[in-house]
């Protein structure tokens, strides 16, 4: 099993998406790169520098890191600093954190691919749901998704784990129904 840590808006949407990907064994919501104790109450507001993210545990024999990154970049906006849909703040910045150095070349290559693939394609100001393209004449800004070694990760409280399964009416910037329709997610 391997691990990858992904941040891009509230962790509830990312957890729902990645928990339904074939080859993913477990997805835990939590906070990365923060300085406060996990139970201090400061994590949810991002007051300690933490970012909401998910720990994705996957079987590399069934899914590779490139496939995971492809899904990740399809559901987040990598071109903003701390803005994902209606959610704003440093705790919502996009990031890819790795725990093993062997993953860095693949991650770096994929981020370069994302940056270069759409140099001449316009983008919308709205949240990138399956990287929608709308506005005439606009060009993609630089990818602002942080790539770095993990540092630390603390799991969110159990009541926040799999939040969208427990509260399907809750807001998520990710269009889960669209991803199901496209065949990206298992039902």
Element string (H = helix, E = strand): EHEEHEEEHEEHH
How many DSSP helices?
5
How widely separated are the two ends? 23 Å
Structural class: alpha+beta
State which percent range the strand residues make up. Answer: 15-25%
Give, in spatial order, the strands making up the sheet with the most strands. Answer: 7-6-1-3-2-8
Please explain how this structure is put together:
The chain has five helices and eight strands. It has 187 residues and is an alpha+beta fold. The protein has a six-stranded mixed beta sheet with strand order 7-6-1-3-2-8, covered by helices on one side. Strands 4-5 form a two-stranded antiparallel sheet. The protein is globular. The model is unreliable at 119-135 (pLDDT under 50).
Please outline what is shown here:
By secondary structure, the chain is an alpha+beta fold. It has helices spanning 11-18, 65-75, 104-117, 163-166, 176-182, and strands at 2-7, 24-32, 51-58, 83-84, 87-88, 95-98, 146-149, 153-155.
Write the layout of secondary structure elements.
Layout: E1 2-7, H1 11-18, E2 24-32, E3 51-58, H2 65-75, E4 83-84, E5 87-88, E6 95-98, H3 104-117, E7 146-149, E8 153-155, H4 163-166, H5 176-182
Parallel strand pairs: 6-7
Antiparallel strand pairs: 1-3, 1-6, 2-3, 2-8, 4-5
Helix pairs in contact: 2-3
